[in-house]
Specification:
The protein has 23 helices and 8 strands. The chain is an alpha+beta fold and 574 residues long.
Length: 574
């Protein structure tokens, strides 16, 4: 039962003839709310266990943070982002409406289209990328079972895998939210068990849980750096060591100065911690390592080496570094915090949505990030052909490629397949499907919106523009903070959680804002929030505005929207 504070609001009038109404955008009645705390926690487990989460900690450790600092920052960041997630999810539970309908209150019945489409197109891009990754997992399973060789570059087999995985995604969308709920709760135990199994593998293979974590120090320390003694230049080396030994895995090292080539075999020297490379000061060099492993010559990647950086010390330097990473981690789920009512509208109560999100998101992000750190460190110890930290197999696909046993490959790829599917559907299909449906409610259903999402996911050619698309999507995601700031201000401060539900479906009601359909206060606050973030992109002295673009936009748009709405209530016709 809901308390009075959690009372679910229903429509008082029939809006079936309104162009703003459709069964997919209508409030979900209390009788059809079937998602409890476990279902919402399982949803977040399914979304959080994915390749980006696995890779997340690597960037932080490489910046010089310890594994413990890294996991704690990820945990705190996800606690922080879960707060607006739960706050924005409140309206989903109370009114049963998706994000595009909720957004009509703040932006207007037409003004919300741009915001919903911006959120939706970001998701379409990620849908294409994740579907391509899932297709590669299917292709790897096929090769493992049949014994076929994986083709280099693009191939028909990879496109077939992409097509099959595309159909699997659309199947669950077509079957509706109950099938998505089933998929998430079915997958959650598998994903958690898979993560724990990977930790068990690393511990058994290494023989010591602590030794694996100690190895993370190698990732935070440069493999090589230039050190000056007077006018002389020395190369300080720190490649990986053998398991339970102090000796380096690498047996020889090759140091090349500017203009030297790697063709001269005489350049390979026996490895030692410090090597004098020049009687004068040089600013850059390159280095590679090699060793004989099981009768084969193995060579590391060649890395560029620069002078040893002076470490920034002091309390404030450390805190500033923590804040930079905290900001980056908060942005990881920024888009979902915007459209979370698409999910919470199916929750049984406010208690369920709040507990489910806080139980599912922060803990899973910490656990699976830790899995990424632990398994990568274990691989660096156990695989003799990994000579330096830069070659550590952070990408789980690269890690699995080191195993020859077909059953291991099939299990691992099946795990990644499930992880990619659960993330893709919940995070990258529901939001754009509702956004497209909101454009033309009478003609575009949720299923049709999902199909449009799938088509756009193909049209972006993710197999060709993977890196470029990812960068663009991260850039756009950082600009969505103003939308959330405006919506939370409108819902909690301006309206104090009291919405006229019927007016959200009335094209001549208060949310038509005088007939234009646009709330100019919201649009102005959005433009200023985004503009300030972009100023930080173009003006180096204000780069902090862009670096923290999500926070910048959120705070500025929140405050400006409040001031505009309080001062110009009559003008904006609220």
């Amino acid at each position: 039962m809901n308390t009075a504070d959690e009372k679910i609001v229903s429509l008082r009038e029939d809006h079936s003839d309104s162009p703003l109404f459709s069964p997919d955008l209508a409030p979900v009645p209390e009788s059809q709310r079937s998602w409890n705390t476990w279902h919402l926690a399982a949803l977040w487990i399914g979304m959080a266990v994915c390749i980006p989460t696995y890779l997340l900690a690597s960037y932080m450790i490489r910046s010089g943070l310890s594994w413990l600092e890294t996991i704690l920052i990820i945990g705190v960041a996800n606690l922080v982002i879960t707060i607006p997630m739960a706050l924005n999810g409140h309206a989903g539970v109370k009114y049963g409406i998706p994000f595009p309908v909720l957004g009509r209150a703040a932006f207007g019945i037409r003004g919300i289209h741009a915001m919903a489409l911006l959120r939706g197109l970001v998701a379409c891009g990620w849908f294409g990328i994740q579907t391509w990754i899932g297709g590669l997992a299917l292709y790897a399973i096929f090769n493992a079972v049949t014994g076929a060789e994986a083709a280099a570059g693009l191939s028909i087999g990879k496109f077939i895998g992409f097509a099959v995985f595309w159909v699997i995604n659309l199947y669950f969308v077509w079957k509706g939210t109950e099938s998505i709920k089933w998929l998430e709760q079915f997958s959650a135990p598998i994903l958690l068990a898979g993560g724990l199994l990977l930790i068990y593998w690393g511990t058994v293979q290494t023989g010591s849980f602590g030794q694996v974590l100690d190895q993370s120090n190698k990732l935070a320390t440069p493999t090589a750096s230039l050190v000056y003694e007077g006018q002389e230049t020395w190369m300080q080396l720190n490649p990986l060591t053998r398991k339970n030994e102090s000796a380096f895995k690498a047996e020889e090292v090759q140091v090349l100065l500017a203009g030297e080539t790697a063709t001269d075999d005489a350049k390979w020297l026996p490895i030692q911690p410090n090597i004098k490379i020049s009687d004068t000061r040089v600013s850059t060099a390159s280095v590679a390592f090699r060793a004989e492993v099981e009768g084969k010559q193995v060579q590391s990647s060649t890395i560029q080496v620069k002078p040893q950086a002076a470490e920034q010390k002091g309390f404030f330097a450390k805190i500033w570094k923590y804040l930079l990473w905290l900001t980056a981690m908060v942005g990881f789920w920024a888009t979902m915090s915007l459209s979370i009512s698409d999910i919470t509208r199916y929750a049984k109560s406010q208690r369920s949505q709040i507990a489910g999100q806080f139980l599912g998101l922060p803990a899973t992000m910490m656990l699976f990030s830790f899995v990424g750190v632990f398994v990568t460190c274990a691989a660096m110890i156990n695989f003799d052909d990994i000579l330096i930290g830069e070659d550590a197999p952070w990408d789980p696909v690269s890690l699995m490629a080191k195993f020859d046993h077909p059953l291991v490959v099939v299990f691992a790829q099946f795990f990644m397949l499930i992880a990619t599917l659960t993330t893709n559907i919940a995070a990258n299909v529901i939001a754009p499907a509702n956004a497209f449906s909101n454009l033309w409610p009478k003609k575009i259903s949720f299923k049709t919106g999902g199909l449009i999402t799938g088509i756009i996911g193909i049209a972006i050619f993710p197999w060709l523009l993977l890196d470029q698309i990812s960068s663009l999507l991260l850039f756009v995601s950082g600009l969505l903070g103003p939308v959330l700031g405006i919506m939370l201000c409108d819902y909690y401060v301006i309206r104090r959680t009291q919405l006229d539900l019927d007016a959200l479906y009335d094209e001549k009601g208060i949310f038509a804002y005088g007939g234009s359909g646009f709330n100019r206060a919201a649009l102005l606050a959005f433009a200023v929030g985004v503009g300030l973030a972009l100023v930080g992109y173009w003006v180096p002295q204000l780069q902090f505005l862009y670096t923290g673009s999500w926070f910048t936009g959120f705070i500025v748009s929140f405050v400006l929207y409040y001031l505009l709405m309080r001062r110009g209530r009559a003008h904006f016709k609220t």
